[in-house]
Amino acid sequence: MLTRGIFLVALVVVLVLSLIPVPQGMSLFSWQDKLEHAAAFMALALLAERTQWPRRWWIGGLLVYGIVIELVQGLTPHRMADPWDAAADALGVVAALALIRGVGARRA
Q1: Distance between CA 70 and CA 82 in Å, rounded?
Q2: Most buried among 23, 36, 40, 92, by the most CB within 10 A?
Q3: 3-class DSSP assignment, residue 28
Q4: Number of alpha carbons in the 13 Å side-chain half-sphere of residue 53
């Protein structure tokens, strides 16, 4: 039950970080934001796996969540929607699934 609470808090943290204004000039390289998206959604997926909810539920939920965040960003004056961010979110989920599968195979 604690894991589910941590997962829900992490969802809120990712939402807040996705909607606050980003200071200009904070990027070290051009695709840093894509790496941040992938890392955030990889972390969310790894937490989701620990909730013991059906995998297809949280995979679908996280993919939709990434798209919804982008749509909401498009409605804010200080952020913009970027379909490549949603793609990076999905890549993070896929990376987590690969890690989960790899760890599971090693334990078997």
Answers
A1: 6
A2: 92
A3: coil
A4: 18
4/77 Cα distance (integer angstroms): 32
* Alpha helices (H) along 1-108: 2-19, 32-50, 55-73, 83-107
The span from the CA of 28 to the CA of 22, in Å, is 13
Helix (H) or strand (E) holding 1: none
The predicted structure's pLDDT at residue 108 = 56
Amino acid identity of residue 88, one-letter, is: A
Decide if 90 contacts 66 (C-beta within 8 A).
Answer: yes
Report CA torsion sign: 91, 93, 96, 98: negative
Q: What angle do CA 4, 93, 58 make, to 5 degrees?
A: 40
**Token pair in block for residue 21:** 């204004």
Summarised one tens digit per residue, pLDDT across range 50-104 is 999 999 999 999 999 999 999 999 999 999 999 999 999 999 999 999 999 987 6
